[in-house]
């Protein structure tokens, strides 16, 4: 391997040459404390920056094993190291010429702790001594240019001075803030643990007392600084847990079934639901919502008029459309509010009503992959837990907010039933299906609904938000329902209806564009270019990180190449993709080491495929 000194000499020799000559530096270099790997060199100073890696061996990074000895801890530590590198790179790197010259950057991230391909733990093989961990960190570098020619001296400074300083400050345990690092890891472990307790205690969500739910602004996901009303559970819904690290905590447990969140406008209903939506992910300490946890299969449902729908059986909700359009295999390129909301629900059920075993174990439920030693508590118990979860059929939990729902999909009151006869109204409103969903399929719903009391009849739990404080008003709502009968005729029938499975036609997913076989590109968290198609994911609320969308784009290509055969159903295909990622990591999604992927859920992968306007399917017979 080439040394640091020869890289330095090489860069100085490249000074003033044409930018393309940088291509020569691709390769591995032996620095005194780590290996520097140049995987890809950008073609010009304004193009996407070059891709680099450092590998810091265990004897140098010296990360104590207790910080990564379980899967949830390892994911949290990798996330911490990514943030640590980012901080140091921001401090040390500086602009050094035109375009992206001088930039040293790691993937972008927000408040969520996600499994990321930006950082990996390198395990040492020394079995006789206490194990230490090393780090592989992936980042990008804007190789410096003056105009279009190489700035060799600046490049040598960046690569041979800045990078070693960043590595030393951010990846060597001795230089880290040990208390902060431990808190990061322990917070995530507690949240994972809490999420695992939900199913066993019959809950679908848990909001810890003391949480800060509101955000700084609509565009700033950090906690509100001043005047935030701290969350306190109503006494009747209070549940206690003894977390592995934090010890005893209490909070509001939302039981399985149908839960209504009511209250006046601007009293904090949507803020509570948003926290619950994001409770499927772990969060950094200090977020305010780090101990709000939700069933990992919770899916936000909303109206999304304008989206395309490919052959979804929305007949449980919608029938007898004008012009005799088929709703058992409903196709549209421009859905209405109600048809889009119906499709969103059926699609979540289609891909979600399955076994969440290995395929879902991506750090969201803290399972231990085999071969890793469990944390204290004994191997036997841990293994039993895995087996149990693999057998469990986890059904989605639907989260609906009146702010983003279609009114005619949600309710149809007595007077309207009188005026417009049932045979003139294609929609069976959600209110008449929500109970059947729970009884037939075990699908719980949490619903924000300040505008209609009709739902009192079907709700199991009613929470009122008043001045940002939660109250249990279930009894009161039930009394009102008894005393003020609405005489509504239920329209839902005895059963919810069938949830059908669709088989995607492989040719309808085409990632190619022009001469390129695969061309996918993402913008932020809501736009994905797939071949020549644009997929709008702006309404998919639980894609929270652009890295997730990048991984989803790659997973769509992978799914197409590996598993779409015109026979497998969409949910079978997604099962296989998720299982592969679980076995071999997200790197299988990319031909070269990608530092910009973040882990996603099966629901969001399905959401992207379902919104592809060219998608075409056949119904599974
Ligand atoms: P609703 O859905 O009931 O109309 P929102 O949840 O949209 O109300 O909240 C209205 C406003 O109040 C938002 O600006 C939100 O940030 C703020 N808010 C929500 N919860 C709290 C809280 N606990 N403390 C302080 N402000 C809050
Ligand atoms: Mg609201």
Question: Summarize this, please?
Answer:
By secondary structure, this protein is α+β, with helices and mostly antiparallel strands. The protein has 15 helices and 33 strands. The strands form 10 sheets. Strands 1, 2, 3, 4, 5, 6, 8 and 9 form an 8-stranded mixed β-sheet that branches. Strands 20-25-26-17-27-28 form a 6-stranded mixed β-sheet, with helices on both faces. The protein has a 4-stranded antiparallel β-sheet with strand order 15-16-12-19, sandwiched between helices.
How would you explain this protein's 3D organization?
There is one protein chain. This protein is of the alpha+beta class. It has three domains: 2-176, no CATH class; 185-352 and 395-483, Rossmann fold; 502-619, no CATH class. The chain is 30% helix and 22% strand. The protein is built from 15 helices and 33 strands. The strands form ten sheets. Strands 1, 2, 3, 4, 5, 6, 8 and 9 form an eight-stranded mixed sheet that branches. A six-stranded mixed sheet has the order 20-25-26-17-27-28, with helices on both faces. The longest helix is centred in the first third of the chain and has 23 residues, at 178-200. The chain starts with a strand and ends with a strand. Residues 356-391 have low confidence and may be disordered.
């Amino acid at each position: 391997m080439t040394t640091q000194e020869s890289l330095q000499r090489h860069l100085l020799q490249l000074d003033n040459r044409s930018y393309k000559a940088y291509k020569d530096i691709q390769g591995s270099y032996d620095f005194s404390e780590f290996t520097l790997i140049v995987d890809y060199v950008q073609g010009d100073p304004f193009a996407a920056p070059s891709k680099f890696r450092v590998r810091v061996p265990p004897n140098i990074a010296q990360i104590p094993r207790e910080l990564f000895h379980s899967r949830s801890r390892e994911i949290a530590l990798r996330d911490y190291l990514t943030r640590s590198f980012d901080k140091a790179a921001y401090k040390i790197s500086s602009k050094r010429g035109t375009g992206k010259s001088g930039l040293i950057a790691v993937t972008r991230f927000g408040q969520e702790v996600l499994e990321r391909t930006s950082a990996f733990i390198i395990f040492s093989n020394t079995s006789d001594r206490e194990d230490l961990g090393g780090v592989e960190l992936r980042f990008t570098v804007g190789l410096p240019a003056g105009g279009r020619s190489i700035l060799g001296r600046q490049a040598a400074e960046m690569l041979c001075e800045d990078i070693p300083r960043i590595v030393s400050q951010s990846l060597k345990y001795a230089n880290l803030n040990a208390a902060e690092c431990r808190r990061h890891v322990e917070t995530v472990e507690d949240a994972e643990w809490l999420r695992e307790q939900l199913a066993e205690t019959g809950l679908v969500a848990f909001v810890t007392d003391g949480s800060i739910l509101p955000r700084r602004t609509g565009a700033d996901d950090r906690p509100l600084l001043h005047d935030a009303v701290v969350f306190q559970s109503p006494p009747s819904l209070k549940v206690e847990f003894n977390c592995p690290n934090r010890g005893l905590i209490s909070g509001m447990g939302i039981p399985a079934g149908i839960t209504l969140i009511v209250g006046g406008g601007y009293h904090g209903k949507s803020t509570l639901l948003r926290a619950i939506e994001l409770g499927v992910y772990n969060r950094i300490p200090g977020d305010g919502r780090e101990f709000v946890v939700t069933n990992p299969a919770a899916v936000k449902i909303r109206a999304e008029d304008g989206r395309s729908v490919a052959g979804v059986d929305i007949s449980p909700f919608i029938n007898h459309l004008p012009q005799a359009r088929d709703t058992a295999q409903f196709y549209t390129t421009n859905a209405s509010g109600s048809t889009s909301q119906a499709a969103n629900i059926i699609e979540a059920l289609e891909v979600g009503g399955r076994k969440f075993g290995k395929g879902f174990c991506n750090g969201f439920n803290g399972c231990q992959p085999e071969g890793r030693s469990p944390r204290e508590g004994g191997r036997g118990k841990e293994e039993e837990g895995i087996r149990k979860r693999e057998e469990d059929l986890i059904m989605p939990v639907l989260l609906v907010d009146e702010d983003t729902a279609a009114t005619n999909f949600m309710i149809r009151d007595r007077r309207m039933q009188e005026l417009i006869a049932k045979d003139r109204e294609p929609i069976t409103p959600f209110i008449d299906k929500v109970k059947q969903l729970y009884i037939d399929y075990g699908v719980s719903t949490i619903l924000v609904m300040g505008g209609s009391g009709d739902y009192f009849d079907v709700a199991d739990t009613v929470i009122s938000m008043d001045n940002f404080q939660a109250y249990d008003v279930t009894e009161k709502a039930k009394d009102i329902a008894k005393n003020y009968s609405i005489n509504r005729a239920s329209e839902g029938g005895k059963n919810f209806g069938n949830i059908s499975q669709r088989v995607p036609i492989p040719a309808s997913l085409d990632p190619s564009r022009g001469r390129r076989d695969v061309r996918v590109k993402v913008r932020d968290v809501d736009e994905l270019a797939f071949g020549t198609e644009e997929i709008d994911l702006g309404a998919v609320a639980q894609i929270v990180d652009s890295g997730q969308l990048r991984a989803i784009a790659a997973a769509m290509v992978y799914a197409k190449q590996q598993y779409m055969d015109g026979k497998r159903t969409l949910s079978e295909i997604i099962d296989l993709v998720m299982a592969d990622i679980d076995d071999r990591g997200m790197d299988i999604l990319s031909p070269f080491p990608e530092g910009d992927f973040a882990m996603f859920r099966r629901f969001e992968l399905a959401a992207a495929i379902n919104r592809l306007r060219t998608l075409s399917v056949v119904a599974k017979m």
